[in-house]
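Appendix B, record 7
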Amino acid sequence: MARVLVAYGTSEGQTERIAEVIGDVLRDAGHEAAVLDVNDLGGVVPEGYDAVVLGASIHMGKHDKHVVALARDNLGTLERLPSAFFSVSLAAQGDQAEAEGYVRQFEEETGWHPDQRALFGGALLYTHYGFLKRRMMRRIVAGKPGDLGVDTSRDYVYTEWDAVRAFAEHVAAGLEPGAG
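Structure tokens (predicted):
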């Protein structure tokens, strides 16, 4: 059994939901998984973990700044341990090249090259947004490639949950049974 830290940075909660599913899959595979908001870590990857999975959402073309700082400031630990990164964006739904560009930018900013990477679609939570954000998000997605919803009377979730579980299973399979 390995002890795995699954840390995430989220603005609207979809990245947290994805991290929770990853944690559940890791636990089902016999590992111990702690799923924590990156803001609760105090900028440090705590001691005692055998692997780290970091997740960050994209907003305004950038990954969550707290996840970027954690990866950059804990580069030695992340390079030493088995590690994985998942990126959550609307681009992953419609523009794979753009989504992959965000991950390349993240790796350049942090210097971290995780063992595994995944791109997951995020969510448009129109019914949770205020008037201005709802209008702004509708305008942004109307000009994007892919099938992104513009009906602001409902929410859209683009996360492919089977892909999230497959990623977590792949992470779990890469951990040594005797770790921990």
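Remarks on this record: Strands lie at 3-9, 32-37, 51-59, 62-63, 83-89, 116-121, 123-124, 156-157. The helical segments are 14-28, 65-73, 75-80, 91-94, 96-110, 131-142, 161-173.
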